[in-house]
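Format notes (please read before filing issues)

Several people have asked whether sequences and structure tokens are stored in separate files. They are not. Every record keeps both together, in the order shown below: the sequence lines, then the token lines. Line labels are part of the format and must not be stripped during preprocessing.
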Amino acid sequence: MKALMTAIVMGCCLTAGYAQAEMKPMSPQQSRMGECNKQATGKKGDERKTFMSSCLSGKAAPVAAVKLTPQQRMGACNKQATGKKGDERKAFMSTCLKG
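Then the structure lines:
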């Protein structure tokens, strides 16, 4: 009986070691999925879908997904428009403020 138990335990140990050796490393897409999932914590519904889509494609989160007050949007656009003058600045600010 003791020999049978020893054989079973040894068989389990060898099988566990073999199963671990068979595991493949994660692909870059799988790694990206894990990272995006961590970053999407707290998001739900369409917001999560949009975020995950942009994250998995390697793009930054879209500005429209972040809800800014008009004052915050104006401040952000002003910072981005630094160095632009005249009609160029006017056109940039118009498109930036529209989102």
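For reference, the curators noted about this record: The longest helix spans residues 2-22. Residues 61-65 have pLDDT under 50 and may be disordered.
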